[in-house]
Design goal:
Domain Glutamate/phenylalanine/leucine/valine/L-tryptophan dehydrogenase C-terminal: 196-426
Number of domains: 2
CATH architecture of the largest domain: 3-Layer(aba) Sandwich
Strand order of the largest sheet: 9-8-7-6-10-11-12
Helix content: 40-55%
Strand content: 15-25%
Number of strands: 12
CATH superfamily of the largest domain: Leucine Dehydrogenase, chain A, domain 1
Number of helices: 13
Family: Belongs to the Glu/Leu/Phe/Val dehydrogenases family.
Bound molecules: NADPH dihydro-nicotinamide-adenine-dinucleotide phosphate, 2-oxoglutaric acid
Radius of gyration: 21 Å
CATH topology of the largest domain: Rossmann fold
Active site: 119
CATH class of the largest domain: Alpha Beta
Organism: Paralcaligenes ureilyticus
Site (Important for catalysis): 159
């Protein structure tokens, strides 16, 4: 007998979602058999706590008024305030933001940060707008979501196409509306505004740390290891540089301008300069070009997707020849592709562990803001590396104990922590 009430018109949550939210739901279902008595709370994870869709009216430089659609979703706040980035992208959808917020709940719990999960987004291609227009859009978006964010409620941070400047505008807008400076309302701020040293590089550094742990587990020396990277922004660019500096051969990099390749290894520092000057990897010196299909089929020791969700699917998973997949991006691998890669023995370090370095240093930033006492970059990096290694080792151990993948192990650890908090808090106000 069903324990849920039935209705003639299904709720939007009951629709079959083929997008990122549907992928997240499949991942949650895979963890159900391992939750024991906590299984009775599983439905909690399939329902975001709070969804806010906002209209953002803005006057453009040419005097016209235009409207953007923005979102902030708080998936779960059982273990602490919501935490997660804000994305500006033309393809942002509610399904995507719901999934990204849920992956934040899982990530924060997997690494044992005292946060729930949240995420935000604005449907906009920021390349089409001037800086003053982006400032007005960001400020209006912040005012609109101001009813649910706050240093103890939900703390945004940078994600795709947002950065420290975006966070400065958000912090200033929220503070003006509150009538008091609230540094702790966002993380990833400029250091001059209470931001943390090391935050800009933190996600890529975390990818490097767990990628190195995985290589060590498989007996692969970093020196000479072939690495390919999709996405050469904050996460992919930093991870590529750190592997390069340790002697790995970064043989291919792809962004939306194309894919550059050199089987002897690209000069990553020169490539970063080239991207700074031209806006993309296309046309970089000492490289040939590859099609996307050729990029995925390259033989590598380490492959790092660090762009958007849904890049590795049943259509390209069979061609992938890498020993280790380190998910810098959120949700880059669909469940079918996950199964194909696992059956080939690919060692997958899932997003909820691999890219947790950013939110870990965001946590350090939040703590520093509250205590008004700031750590050195060396201290930050040391603590970050320790937390990433601990999380990787603990989740590997659970994977071995239950004979499951690292992704399912991370979900077992995280979902158990979230649902235990749910259970012990109880349901009624
Ligand atoms: N920033 C952070 O702290 C964190 C980010 N992440 C995740 O990491 C991923 C990347 O984020 P981040 O580096 O911050 O974002 P950025 O905006 O800095 O960089 C995104 C990169 O991805 C490239 N890209 C976008 N679409 C495509 C595509 N279809 N094919 C190939 N390349 C593409 C972009 O290329 P181009 O510039 O040419 O458009 C750019 O190089 C996202 O999934 C994000 O959610 C996860 C944890 C924390
Ligand atoms: O730093 C943060 O708070 C969140 C970063 C983020 O959005 C992510 O990990 O996907």
């Amino acid at each position: 007998m069903s324990t849920q009430p039935t209705h003639a018109i299904p709720s939007y949550l009951d629709q079959k979602d083929p997008g990122p939210w549907g992928i997240y739901l499949q991942q949650v279902d895979r963890v159900a058999p391992y939750l024991g008595r906590l299984g009775k709370w599983l439905e909690t994870l399939k329902r975001p706590k709070r969804i806010l869709v906002v209209d953002i009216p803005v006057e453009l430089d040419n005097g016209t008024i235009t409207h953007f659609e923005g979102y902030r979703v708080q998936h779960n706040i059982s273990r602490g305030p919501g935490k997660g980035g804000v994305r500006f992208h033309q393809d942002v959808t509610l399904s995507e933001v719901m999934a990204l917020s849920a992956w934040m709940s899982v990530k924060n719990a997997a690494v044992n940060l005292p946060f729930g999960g949240a995420k935000g987004g604005v449907r906009i291609d920021p390349r089409n707008y001037s800086m003053p227009e982006l400032e007005r859009i960001t400020r209006r978006y912040t005012s609109e979501i101001g009813v649910i964010i706050g240093p103890h409620k939900d703390i945004p941070a940078p994600d795709v196409n947002t950065n420290a400047q975006t966070m400065a505008w958000m912090m200033d807008t929220y503070s003006m509306n509150e009538g008091a400076t609230a540094t702790g309302v966002v993380t990833g701020k400029p250091v001059s505004l209470g931001g943390s040293l090391g935050r800009v590089e933190a996600t890529g550094r975390g990818v490097f740390v767990v990628g190195s742990e995985a290589a060590n587990d498989l007996g692969i020396p970093l020196k000479g290891a072939r690495v390919s990277v999709q996405g050469f922004g904050n996460v992919g660019g930093t991870a590529a540089r750190l592997f390069y500096e340790q002697g790995a051969k970064v043989i291919a990099v792809q962004d939306h301008t194309g894919c550059v390749h050199n089987s002897n290894g690209l000069n990553v520092l020169a490539l970063l300069n080239h991207v700074e000057q031209t806006g993309g990897v296309a046309g970089a010196a000492d490289s040939d070009t590859l099609t996307p299909a050729e990029f995925w089929a390259l033989e590598t020791e380490i492959l790092i997707p660090a762009a958007l969700e849904g890049q590795i699917t049943k259509h390209n998973a069979n061609s992938i020849k890498t020993r280790i997949l380190v998910e810098g991006a959120n949700g880059p691998t669909t469940p079918e592709a996950d199964d194909i890669l696992n059956s080939k023995g690919t060692h997958i370090v899932p997003d909820v562990v691999a890219n947790a370095g950013g939110v870990t240093v965001s946590y350090f930033e939040w703590v520093q803001d509250f205590s008004s006492f700031y750590w050195t970059e060396a201290e930050i990096n040391h603590r970050l590396e320790a937390m990433m290694r601990t999380a990787y080792t603990a989740i590997s151990a659970v994977a071995k104990e239950h004979k499951v993948t690292m992704r399912t192990a991370a979900f077992i650890v995280a979902c158990s922590r979230i649902l235990e908090a749910r259970e012990v808090r109880g349901l009624y106000p």
